[in-house]
Design a protein that fits this description.
The complex is a heterodimer of chains A (354) and B (311).
Chain A: H1 3-19, E1 32-35, E2 43-46, H2 51-61, E3 65-69, E4 71-73, E5 86-89, E6 91-96, H3 104-122, E7 133-137, E8 142-147, H4 157-168, E9 179-181, E10 186-188, H5 196-211, H6 223-234, H7 246-249, H8 251-254, E11 275-277, E12 291-292, E13 310-315, E14 319-321, E15 327-329, E16 334-338, H9 339-347, E17 351-353
Antiparallel strand pairs in A: 1-2, 1-3, 3-11, 4-5, 6-8, 7-8, 7-12, 9-10, 13-16, 13-17, 14-15
Helix pairs in contact in A: 1-2, 5-6
Chain B: H1 3-8, H2 13-22, H3 28-44, H4 55-75, H5 78-95, H6 98-107, E1 113-115, E2 118-122, H7 123-129, E3 143-144, E4 147-150, H8 152-168, H9 178-185, H10 196-202, H11 208-218, H12 225-237, H13 242-249, H14 257-270, H15 277-283
Antiparallel strand pairs in B: 1-2, 2-4, 3-4
Helix pairs in contact in B: 3-4, 3-5, 3-9, 4-9, 5-8, 6-8, 10-13, 12-14, 13-14
Classes of the chains: A alpha+beta (354), B mainly alpha (311).
Chain lengths: 354, 311
C-alpha cells in the first residue's frame, strides 16, 4: 500500500476514535497491545489506569489494531509476564472460517456455531452464567466468545486446553459409547436423556431419524423400522433394527456433534496471557468494528464504521464483496465505492485509491 | 483435635494445626528418622509409616513428617520433592478410607456433590485435579450445569492427585539449622545422574516443542503421558540409543525403569512414528508456529519458531 493510502486510512481510523468512546470492563487490570501496518501486535505490556486514559490513547494513536489481555493482572504493565501478578483470565473462544472476502453464508454459519457453543455447551454443560457471556464479532472472519464467569477464571492452561478439546471433539470417538453383548447380539449405548456427548449423540440420532432418516439409511424411511429403532434408543438399546453394521452408519451424525468452527490450534482458549481484539475497536484488516452482539443478533452491516461517502478506487482484481450496498467489478475497473468498502478493499489489498 | 487422623495423614491441616499449637523442637533422633523415611521413599516409591499407639508416638509421626518436609525444603530440588509427593500419593491411595478421602479432599478443595447416590465435582475442580488419562478426558464424561459426574472410586483417585499437587509445593524459607542442611545433602545421592554420554546422544538442534519438554525434564518436573511418549518417540526416531533415552527420562520424578524400557523398546520395535504437529497441538504440547508438519522436519523446512499472532 502506498503512503498516501495509509495516511488516508489512518485519518479515517482517527475520525472513528474521535467520535467513539470505548467503555471496556476492568481496564485497569488488563494488559493492552497494539499494532500497525507490519504486525498486529507491535507493542504490548501497555496499561491504562482508567477508560479515559485508554480513549485518549486511541484518539492520539488511532492504531490499526488494538488488543487487550483476557487476563486480569495486579500490574498489567510489568515485565516479564510473571511479574504482572496474574489474577485469573476470562475463558475465551475463537470461532472462524476460511474466507478471503466476507461471505454472508459462512458468517451466518459461524454465528450459529457460536450460539450453539453458548446454548448447548457453555450454559447447560459447563454451567456458565448467561449474563456473563459475550458474543463478539471479531471484526474479520468470525466471532469471539468471552466468558467472564468467575468460576473459570483461575483455570490454568491444561484445564482450558481440555475444555477446547472437549468443544472441538478432539479425542471423541462415538464408537466408545457402545458395548455389544456377544451372547444376545444386543448393542447397548447412550440414552437421549444422558448428559455430555453421549446424550447429545443419542438426541441427534433421534432427531435425524425424525427429520432426514435417509441421511443414515433409506431403510428408516419405513415408518415401523424407524420407530422400532427410536424406541430402542430411548431405552439405550441400539440394535433394534435390521440394518447391518448400524453403529458405523451413524458416523455422519457423530461428525456434527462438536463445535466445528472453534479454533483450538492457535491457543486462544488455552493461553492465559492471550491478547484479544478489544471490543468496540476497529479491525485493521477490514476497517470493521469488533462488535459485541446484542441477543446474538448481529448483521455485518452493524459493524460498519465509516460513511457511505463516495470514494473513487481502482480494483486490483475481480472483486465481489457483499457488505452493505456491496461492490462488484472486474480487475482494473474504476468504481465509486462507499467509504467503508473503499477502506475494506484497500486493507485487503484488492484496490487502490485514485 | 483428631490425633489419630493427623498421625495417619501428617500432611493434613489437622496435623499442621497440632504442630502449630505445640511448636516442638526437633531432636537429632527425629532428624535421623526423617532422613530414613525419605531414603526409603526414594528407594521404594512408597512411604514407610509407623504404627503409632500412644499419643506420644502419634505425635512423633507428625513431627517426623514435618521434618522430612523441612529437609526437602533445605535442598529444594523439584525431583526429590516431586518424587516424595508421588510416594505419598501412592501410599495414601492404598490406605485411605472413603471417609478419610472426603476429609482430605475437603481440606484441598475437592468436595464432591452427592445426589441420589450420584457423585460429581465442579468442573474447575475436576479439571484441576483429574489425572492425565483418556478415561478422565472430558469428551468421555457426563457434564451438567458445571458439574462432572464421577464414580466413587474415581473420587479417591482425584483426591490422590490433589494430595500429590499439594505436596509438590514446599514450605518456604531456608533452613538455618546445620543438622537439617546436612541431612538434605545426604539426599543428593538419589538425584538422577545426567551423564556425559546421554547429553551427547541427545544433543542437537530440536524444535521448540521438544526443547520445552527437555527443559521440563531437566527441571525434574512431572510430565504427562503424552509428553513423555512424544519425547521418547522423537528421540527413537532420531536414532538415539535406548539406554540414552532411558537415562534422560530417569530425570522424571515418577520414573520407573521397567516401564520406560518397555515403552522405548516397544516404540523402537514397532517403528512408532512421531506424532504430527497437529497431534502435538491437540496434546497441548505445541509451543510455537514453526511452519512444519511434523517436529521431525525441524531443520529441514522451518525454523521460524515465531510467536503466533492471531486475531
Amino acid at each position: 500500500m502506498e503512503e498516501k493510502e495509509k495516511k488516508w486510512i489512518k485519518n479515517r481510523f482517527r475520525r472513528y476514535y474521535a467520535t467513539h468512546e470505548l467503555r471496556p470492563d476492568a481496564v485497569e487490570e488488563r494488559e493492552f497491545g497494539y499494532g500497525e501496518w507490519d504486525r498486529k501486535i507491535e507493542a504490548r505490556h501497555l496499561a491504562f489506569e482508567n477508560p479515559e486514559k485508554l480513549n485518549e490513547f486511541l484518539r492520539e494513536t488511532a492504531p490499526l489494531y488494538i488488543s487487550r489481555s483476557t487476563a486480569y493482572y495486579e500490574r498489567p504493565a510489568a515485565q516479564p509476564m510473571n511479574n504482572k501478578g496474574w489474577k485469573g483470565s476470562d475463558l475465551v473462544f475463537d470461532l472462524d472460517a476460511e474466507m478471503e472476502v466476507f461471505d454472508r453464508k459462512i458468517f451466518e454459519k459461524v454465528r450459529e456455531d457460536a450460539i450453539r457453543l453458548i446454548e448447548e455447551f457453555l450454559i447447560p454443560e459447563f454451567g456458565a452464567d448467561r449474563g456473563k457471556i459475550a458474543l463478539v464479532f471479531s471484526g474479520n472472519r468470525g466471532f469471539h466468545v468471552h466468558v467472564f464467569d468467575e468460576k473459570f477464571r483461575m483455570l490454568g492452561r491444561e484445564g482450558r486446553r481440555e475444555i477446547a478439546s472437549y468443544l472441538s471433539g478432539t479425542g471423541m470417538n462415538y464408537r466408545n459409547f457402545f458395548i455389544e453383548d456377544k451372547k444376545s447380539k444386543k448393542i447397548f449405548g447412550p440414552k437421549p436423556d444422558e448428559a455430555g456427548y453421549r446424550g447429545r449423540f443419542a438426541r441427534m440420532v433421534v432427531k435425524t431419524l425424525e427429520n432426514e432418516p435417509e441421511k443414515i439409511s433409506r431403510i428408516f424411511n419405513e415408518w415401523s423400522e424407524k420407530n422400532r429403532f427410536v424406541e430402542g434408543i430411548k431405552q439405550g438399546v441400539w440394535s433394534k433394527t435390521r440394518l447391518p453394521k448400524v453403529i458405523e452408519r451413524l458416523e455422519v451424525v457423530a461428525k456434527e456433534l462438536p463445535v466445528r468452527s472453534i479454533n483450538v490450534d492457535v491457543g486462544v482458549t488455552q493461553d492465559t496471557s492471550k491478547l484479544i481484539r478489544l471490543p468496540g475497536s476497529l479491525h485493521g484488516s477490514t476497517g470493521l468494528t469488533v462488535l459485541p452482539a446484542k441477543n446474538y443478533e448481529i448483521e455485518i452491516e452493524d459493524a460498519i464504521a465509516f460513511t457511505g461517502e463516495r470514494v473513487k478506487i481502482q480494483l486490483n482484481r475481480n472483486v465481489h464483496v457483499d457488505i452493505g450496498e456491496g461492490v462488484k467489478g472486474e480487475k482494473g475497473a474504476v468504481v465509486d465505492a462507499p467509504e467503508y468498502l473503499a477502506v475494506y478493499l484497500l486493507l485487503k489489498n484488492m484496490a487502490r485509491l485514485l | 483435635m483428631d490425633l489419630e487422623f493427623a498421625a495417619k495423614f501428617p500432611f493434613s491441616n489437622e496435623a499442621k494445626q497440632i504442630m502449630d499449637e505445640k511448636k516442638p523442637g526437633i531432636g537429632d533422633e527425629i532428624i535421623e528418622r526423617a532422613l530414613e523415611r525419605l531414603k526409603h521413599a526414594f528407594k521404594t516409591g512408597r512411604v514407610m509409616t509407623g504404627t503409632p499407639i500412644s499419643m506420644e508416638e502419634k505425635f512423633e509421626e507428625i513431627l517426623i513428617y514435618a521434618t522430612t518436609r523441612i529437609i526437602l525444603a533445605s535442598i529444594n530440588n523439584p525431583f526429590l520433592t516431586n518424587k516424595y509427593a508421588v510416594a505419598w500419593a501412592k501410599t495414601i491411595y492404598e490406605k485411605m478410607s472413603m471417609e478419610e478421602a472426603k476429609r482430605i479432599g475437603a481440606e484441598l478443595g475437592v468436595v464432591p456433590r452427592i445426589e441420589n447416590g450420584e457423585w460429581s465435582l465442579p468442573i474447575s475442580v475436576y479439571l484441576e485435579f483429574s489425572p492425565e488419562d483418556v478415561a478422565y478426558s472430558l469428551v468421555n464424561r457426563e457434564m451438567e450445569r458445571g458439574y462432572v459426574k464421577i464414580k466413587e472410586r474415581e473420587f479417591l483417585r482425584i483426591v490422590q492427585e490433589a494430595v500429590k499437587r499439594h505436596l509438590e509445593k514446599l514450605p518456604r524459607g531456608k533452613a538455618r539449622d546445620e543438622r537439617i542442611k546436612k541431612a538434605g545433602e545426604q539426599l543428593r545421592e538419589f538425584l538422577p545422574k545426567i551423564d556425559q554420554k546421554t547429553t551427547t546422544a541427545i544433543k542437537g538442534d530440536h524444535p521448540p516443542c521438544i526443547n520445552a519438554l527437555l527443559e521440563q525434564v531437566y527441571k525434574h518436573e512431572n510430565l504427562g503421558h503424552h509428553a513423555r511418549w512424544s519425547l521418547a518417540v522423537y528421540f527413537v526416531n532420531r536414532g538415539v540409543d535406548t539406554e540414552a533415552i532411558i537415562s534422560l527420562l530417569s530425570n522424571l520424578p515418577d520414573f520407573s525403569e521397567r516401564k520406560t524400557r518397555y515403552y522405548v523398546e516397544h516404540a523402537k520395535k514397532r517403528g512408532y512414528i512421531m506424532p504430527s504437529c497437529e497431534t502435538m497441538r491437540a496434546y497441548g504440547l505445541c509451543v510455537a508456529e514453526c511452519g512444519i508438519k511434523n517436529p521431525l522436519s525441524w531443520g529441514k523446512y522451518g525454523r521460524k519458531g515465531k510467536e503466533v499472532d492471531k486475531e
